[in-house]
Amino acid sequence: MGNNNGDDPLIAQYTQAIQQNPQDAEAYFSRGVAYHYDDDFDRALADYTQALQLNPHYSEVYFNRGLAYLAKGDFNRAIADYLRVLQLNSLDAIAYDDYYFEDIDEWDITQAITTLNNALKRNSQDASAYLCRGLLYLFRNTDSHRVDRAMADFNKALHLNPQYAEAYLVRGIVHAREEELDRAVADFTQAIALHPQLAEAYYNRGVVYYQQGDLDRAIADFTQAIALHPDYAGAYHHRGLAHCAKGELDKAIADYTQAVHLNPRDAVAFLNRGLAYTQAGDSDRARADYAQALQVYPQLAEAYHDRGLDYIGKGEIDRAVADFNKALQLNPQYVEAYLGRAAAYNTAEDLDRAIADYTQAIQLDPQLAEAYYERGAAYSEKGDLDRAIADYTQVIQLNPQDAHAYYSRGIAYYEKGELQKAIEDLQKAIALDSSGTIRTFASRMLGELTR
For the residues of 31-76, what is the DSSP string, one character each? Predict the structure, then answer.
């Protein structure tokens, strides 16, 4: 292909679209792709960059711009763009499978890897080429060995250049997504030591600290990432998660609000702000956020689930069931949606349907103590005490410290007339719940039985 694109009707079409609407990021991107396929990389880069100025969260454009930089031999700029793709993908952990990259063409990846293979044949000591190729391996959705291939290249890059901060950063991201959290923290910390202005390293270390429950360190790292990069939507989003986990709902809502201001396409940030509003008792704002999350990403089953829970809280059972139904249509393996729908049926006193959903949840997750407990409660309410006792017993096997299960089983034994077993379970509940509500109720019941 050559650069004789002046008469290209496709380019002319996109140029006309841009003239009609200079804010059309999609038109700039599409014209950039047309230039790209015509090997006019400079014009392609100009259009990709303009598209990103209009929409800084356009993952596919970063990927294509990286390809254009790669074609020009600018590996470091390609790496920066591929890192951005990886970062944008990581924000969607709730909505998408790990390492699934939407809108990335496998053929483009294969061609780019071929380019890097040829570059490494010419210079096998180029650490940036290894890092770039490793990132491209991660983007191959159909390659079951992509993580191993990528890690081999990241390790090679660090062997050639032990001061390569970006290689530690990327390797840390992969460690984190493989749930090797201590290794991830070590790599992010090393990246920061080598490059103290690398906002992405603080952000990613903060994400791992959050996963480990170290919320204060997480917040400190997200705050540092924001100080270095004030438009870092992901850092605001995740700092909001950490504040929410600490019960600091006002701070969480403020951070989520900034995140969606910076990235209005972040459906998960809308979802999480909706959850924070729900916890704060602001149902109207919560529902507005769930609706906005679904407008951005209609396949987000979690938004239907969370809105369904909000409907239960307001006694709108039919709407709740409809939302749980939609969540399960999108994800038939969604255990929490079965639990939510069961809770809705329970509220409506439709115990048979509730029991069926608890049973389905148990089939999907046989270690789910909550489902056994709630099913036991439904059986108990129906008067099926043997099945109730069996479910409470299963809860106790899964969690021998569950005072609620001992108390409920004790009540079931009492209702069956097995008083000694009832006394033993109530005593156990009291011992496990030294100061809570269960102790109060169990003590009262035990007093009546032992009079």
Answer: HHHHHHHTT-HHHHHHHHHHHHHH-TT-HHHHHHHHHHHHHTT-HH
Question: What pTM value is reported for the model?
Answer: 0.84
Mean residue pLDDT across the chain: 92
Q: Where are the domains of the chain?
A: 371-451
CA angle 382, 383, 389 (to 5 degrees): 105
CA angle 248, 250, 253 (to 5 degrees): 105
Q: Percentage of residues in the chain with pLDDT exceeding 70?
A: 95
Distance CA 37, CA 18 (A): 19
**Neighbour tally for 3: CB within 10 Å:** 12
C-alpha to C-alpha distance for 130 and 148, rounded to whole angstroms: 13
| Cα distances (Å, whole numbers) of residue 316 to 281, 308, 423 | 16, 9, 39
Residue 136: φ, ψ to 5°: -65, -35
Q: Which CATH code fits 371-451?
A: 1.25.40.10
CB 439, CB 431: distance < 8 Å: no
The encoded tokens of residue 98 equal 């790990």
Q: What angle do CA 237, 284, 234 make, to 5 degrees?
A: 5
CB burial of residue 202 (10 Å; 0-12, 13-18, 19+):
buried
**pLDDT tier for residue 104 given thresholds of 50, 70 and 90:** low
Residues 6 or more apart whose Cβ sits within 8 Å of residue 405: 369, 373, 376, 392, 395, 396, 399
Q: Which amino acid is at 136?
A: L
Report, as an integer, the average pLDDT of 210-234. Answer: 96
- The phi and psi torsions of 305 (rounded to 5 degrees) equal -60, -50
| pLDDT single digits (tens) 33-69 | 999 999 999 999 999 999 999 998 888 899 999 999 9
Residues in the chain: 451
C-alpha span between 370 and 389 (Å, rounded): 14
Chain CA centroid to CA 18, Å: 35
Residue 115 burial class via C-beta count within 10 angstroms: exposed 0-12, middle 13-18, buried 19 and up: buried
Contact 431, 440 (CB under 8 A): no
The amino acid that residue 346 corresponds to is N
DSSP 8-state symbol, 348: T
CA 371 to CA 339: how far, in whole Å?
A: 7
